[in-house]
Design goal:
The protein has helices spanning about 25-35, 70-80, 105-115, 130-134, and strands at about 20, 25, 40-50, 55-65, 70, 90-95, 125-130. With about 130 residues, the protein is an alpha+beta fold.
């Protein structure tokens, strides 16, 4: 994306953007917004299929040790940084996220885990960063 002042912004890789109802949602921007929450150590966003909108965001977070958060708390936090229609339809808590040898997040592996329900949406309960690692 290029701003009117000719500033270039790398927004997202084509396979990582989410097409929802004909509009594009940047997974990178959602991840960065989630990472601004003090309880979030790491975040990843992948697309999940939706019967009406084609795709919708699915946020997966790793909490910092001894931190707690709820789905509603994370959604409220995200509303401060992204448009309402960008809010994830589902949020999951994970002990860790898969990374390749260079440290890059392996979104293909995350998509497989979501598709096979290894990672599933969380209910609105307080989740602890310590409990996830036990």
């Amino acid at each position: 994306m290029i701003d009117p002042d000719n500033t270039l912004h790398i927004v997202d890789r084509a396979k990582d953007v989410i097409k929802s109802g004909g509009e594009w949602i940047s997974s990178q921007a959602l991840e960065e917004a989630a990472m601004r929450h003090p309880a979030v150590q790491e975040a990843a966003v992948v697309a999940m299929q939706h019967p009406r909108w084609q795709e919708r965001p699915f946020l997966i977070v790793v909490l910092t040790e001894n931190a707690t958060a709820t789905v509603d708390e994370l959604r409220a936090h995200l509303m401060r940084f992204v448009p309402k229609w960008w809010l994830p339809d589902a949020i999951a808590f994970a002990a860790d996220l898969p990374h390749g040898p260079t440290g890059k997040l392996q979104k293909d592996e995350l998509r497989r885990r979501v598709a096979s329900r290894v990672i599933a949406p969380a209910e609105n309960i307080a989740v602890s960063g310590t409990a996830e690692r036990e």
